[in-house]
Amino acid sequence: MTDLSLPAGKPIKLKLDRDGAIKRLFMVMIGLYLVVALALPLYAMLSKSFVTYGFDLDRYEFQVSDDAGVFGEPVTAAALNEQLGVVGDADLRSSSDGRLSVTVFFSDFSFRSPVKYRIRGTTPDAPYLVGLDLQNSTEWQEYDSNTFRRINLRPVQSVGPQNYIEYFSNPALFSSIENSLFIASVSTVLTVFFAFGFAYAINRSCMPFKGVFKLVAMMPILVPSLLPGIALIYLFGNQGMLKSILMGQSIYGPLGIVIGSVFFTFPHALIIITTALSIADQRQYEAAESLRASRWRTFWTVTIPGARYGLISAAFVTFTLVITDFGLPKVIGGQYNVLAIDIYKQVIGQQNFEMGAVVSVILLIPAVLAFYVDRQVQKKQVSLLSARSVPYQPKPNRRFEALCLAWCGLMTVFIVGIIGVCQYAALIKFWPYDLSLSLNNYAFDKMDGGGWSAYWNSIKLAGLTAVVGTVIVFTGAYMVEKIDGFRTGRSLFQFLAMLPMAVPGMVLGLAYIFFFNNPDNPLNVIYGTMTILVVSTVTHFYTVGHLTALTALKQIDAEFEPVASSLRQPFYRLFTRVTVPVCLPAVLDISIYMFVNAMTTVSAVVFLYSTHTALASVAVLNMDDAGDIAPAAAMGMMIFYTNATARLVHLFASRRILGTTQAWRKR
Amino acid sequence: MTKLKSLYLGVAISAFCTTMALAETELTVYTAVEAEDLARYAETFNQDHPDIKINWVRDSTGVITAKLLAEKNNPQADVVWGLAATSLLVLKTEGMLEPYEPSGLDKLDPKFRDSDTPPSWVGMDAWVASVCYNTVEGDKLGLTAPASWMDLTKPEYAGHVVMPNPASSGTGFLDVSSWLQIFGEEKGWEYMDALHENIAAYTHSGSKPCKMAASGETVIGVSFAFRGAKSKAAGAPLEIVVPTEGIGWDMEASAIMAGTANEEAAKTLLDWSITSKAMEMYNTGYAVVAIPGIAKPVEHFPEGITDAMIDNDFEWAANNRSAILEEWTKRYDTKSEPKG
């Protein structure tokens, strides 16, 4: 009698209390923010990439008169083309700016003949040009033959994969994929190699000046990625100080991009590898020593496997940074086309937004792939440390320390040299013919790019991004971490929060144009304002802030919430009285991260700034673009000093705040 | 209590009246005029029309054109004052310009206005192509200055010529379209094939080649005369060459955007933009302006520019722009290896 079992009861659900409801509301609100600021624009871009333009010959009808002016039967352009076969399918495809002369449909056309022509649209949307005047009407219009030769059909919009087909059949555009992959791979190998040596020296040797080296290694984060490009022009350009070193090689092109990329990705790789190397277990090395393994063997069997996840992660982060970077190839790439430059050229140069969207989608692929692999690796990383691990203690070794010192010294010279050259170039009156010093290059108001107000705008943007971004990111992380149940919602939120990392800045910026510049969009009002810049920057740098906040929140015991609710304290009191003060170091870290990146970012905002919201980082780009390289260097240095000051203030503030709020950590 | 209220009311009314009295029309004006000239232009205009406030939106020609096209269905600009005529022609074919006949139109050189009546746009000044040659670096390499476009294809200049990319620079397109008109289509492409062999780099902006020549980063920069004169004034060892075959040119022009809410003010601005006073103002930087006989020679500008200007067919250039750029990109943009 098996079918006597009880009927399935109602599934047990926890009753939703007020706190839970408010938390859910907050989470949904921030989730909605991410949907509007990220998912919808990306969708708008994807659909834009499928918008195609082509000539629809069925939409036009002609009538031709004889010499006496008596008109014959109307005939469509499609029918004429079928007879003559003059316009193939490939020629019917076009861009939004295409033109097709109507005279091709009349093989015996002569502009001297007395024959008259009539044209009309068979549907309301049948645009054509008479000379430069746009016509769009279903009424017959009559023209003499001399005017008729000035008539061009305009393409109409439709939907299809044609843009992608065109992209892959254009060798010029296609070669950019190869170029992008090439420079990203080479830069990644070099950066990881140099960063590993640096991190190894810092973590595993007893060399002096570690503090100085660490400080210098972080300097590239404080400047826009195109600044090393400018320095390289002064060093190795045709009038460069050290041009002879290159032995006739040109710095413009892959060489310059790779050197510059190593500069600006170095700190990112270093942070990851340092973390990986710092969790080594002393016992493994003791075991290796007692087994009489050589240092070389120990290195390959203990050190490298221990750091492998860090290395892989660093490699992918570097790869993504290089392949999506736009500033450096713009400044020093010469004729070397890469994907990021193609987007800029298609959109700004040719106003071909659809093709820009296609390249963006293609640029998304490697970025998403790298992101995915990185996430997989990160998941495995956690299980390495056990409670019984003994931290590694380096032993003094003269020769090894000398080697480490040389390695780090070399990198320090490279980094300080690049920044020093920029400062020097900014102070020179007229390179290379008048080497006297002057402050002329700081007269930004006389150049393209937005002048000093661009600098103040950048500070405003950075400040707003730091405040607004930190509040949104931290609140979002808190809600998703400290909520009970609501699994699907939480994992969906997690996914949305991780997504920005995989979206290159340029792609985000272009997606924003498509989404926010649509007159039907009620959010259209923020287009061209400071708000859209803040929204795009917060979204662009969301993920790292989110992860930092999560790490800090995970350290707080989950018991706090039940205790607070048993004491009948609402969650927001717990949040403001306990959670935020305890996490204050992380909160400060998020805000400085947002600030520095808002000062240096170019890629997302280059499509979004307007004249009243010009930014310093974009001004560097535009001044270089106009050939004002020295002022560009000067503005880049202003960004550097601002960020360095912000860092110092942050350091000082966190020391003080830590002293007052984190005293409980010490016993 | 009531007294206080009426006092408030009185203050509010008088405040309202003052703002009414000072009320000025604000015009959003899109422009590609050089950044350093903007304040001067607005100031001179306000001497005659203090009641109209100009809010500039400035960017390079390519960016401003892209911005205008992107805002096609939701125009933000009232007036375009100082944008390349080729760009305005593109806007015209999209039906984005409001035709208007400004007073004093008949004084303009017919080249400097839209041929339709009423015209969709009116010209301000011409902006001519020329070649910037760095004499110091040229001497070092034992080169002599080129005299013609053809000279630029000489093997001795290999790797020493920089020109703007026509796909992203208005000046670059001006050069390419003028060569196709001067030499004819077939010969024009042949010329560019030969020139391509000497090109060190195609830049994104039209002023950069001349600035690169000014700083010795290259020897020859194909750019425009205005930029060369400015660099020369700043002390660069430049010679500005006007090639003998003739030079391509474009004009800075103005138009009213269709759908503007401030039509009266926009018309006032357009009227003013072709007055002799405005022309004298343009003349500070540009040697050729729209009303004949007004222009005085500009310092460091090469001579004989007006005669060298070709008979530019703007309609042809605008209607073939897309096809020309496609061909150009196909031929030369694949050049992935840079040359020293």
Question: Can you offer a commentary on this structure?
Answer:
With 667 residues, chain A is α+β, with helices and mostly antiparallel strands. Helix content of chain A is 61%, strand content 7%. Chain A has 25 helices and 13 strands. In chain A, strand 7 and strand 8 form a beta hairpin. The longest helix of chain A is centred in the first third of the chain and has 34 residues. The mean pLDDT of chain A is 88. Chain B has 340 residues and is α/β, with parallel strands linked by helices. Chain B folds into two domains: 164 residues, D-Maltodextrin-Binding Protein, domain 2 (3-Layer(aba) Sandwich), CATH 3.40.190; 146 residues, D-Maltodextrin-Binding Protein, domain 2 (3-Layer(aba) Sandwich). The C terminus of chain B is likely disordered. At the A-B interface, helix 6 and helix 13 of A face strand 2, helix 3, helix 4, strand 7 and helix 8 of B.
Quick recap of the structure?
The complex is a heterodimer of chains A (667) and B (340). Chain A has 667 residues and is of the alpha+beta class.
Instruction: Show unreliable segments of chain B.
Output: 11-22, 336-340
Shape of chain B: globular
Q: Averaged pLDDT of chain A, please?
A: 88
Please count the beta strands of chain A (DSSP E, at least 2 residues each): 13
Question: How many domain modules of chain A?
Answer: 3
Find the CATH topology of the largest domain in chain B. Answer: D-Maltodextrin-Binding Protein, domain 2
Name the helicity range of chain A: 55-70%
Under CATH, the topology of the largest domain in chain A is which? MetI-like fold
Which pair of chains has the greatest number of interface residues, and how are they split between the two chains?
A: A-B, 64 and 68 residues
What is the secondary structure topology, with strand pairs?
The complex is a heterodimer of chains A (667) and B (340).
Chain A: H1 18-48, E1 51-54, E2 60-64, E3 75-76, H2 77-84, H3 89-92, E4 93-94, E5 100-101, E6 116-121, E7 128-130, E8 133-135, E9 141-144, H4 145-148, E10 151-153, E11 156-159, H5 162-169, H6 171-204, H7 210-217, H8 227-236, H9 254-278, H10 282-290, H11 295-324, H12 327-332, H13 339-349, H14 353-381, H15 398-427, E12 428-430, E13 434-437, H16 451-481, H17 487-502, H18 505-516, H19 530-540, H20 542-554, H21 560-566, H22 571-582, H23 584-600, H24 616-625, H25 629-661
Helix pairs in contact in A: 1-16, 1-17, 1-18, 6-9, 6-11, 6-15, 8-9, 8-15, 9-11, 11-14, 13-14, 14-18, 15-25, 16-19, 16-20, 16-23, 16-24, 17-20, 20-23, 23-25, 24-25
Chain B: H1 2-22, E1 25-31, H2 35-48, E2 52-58, H3 61-70, E3 79-84, H4 85-93, E4 97-98, E5 122-134, H5 135-140, E6 161-164, H6 170-183, H7 185-198, E7 199-203, H8 208-214, E8 220-224, H9 225-233, E9 238-241, E10 249-257, H10 263-273, H11 276-283, H12 305-308, H13 314-332
Parallel strand pairs in B: 1-2, 1-3, 6-7, 6-8
Antiparallel strand pairs in B: 3-10, 4-10, 5-8, 5-9, 5-10
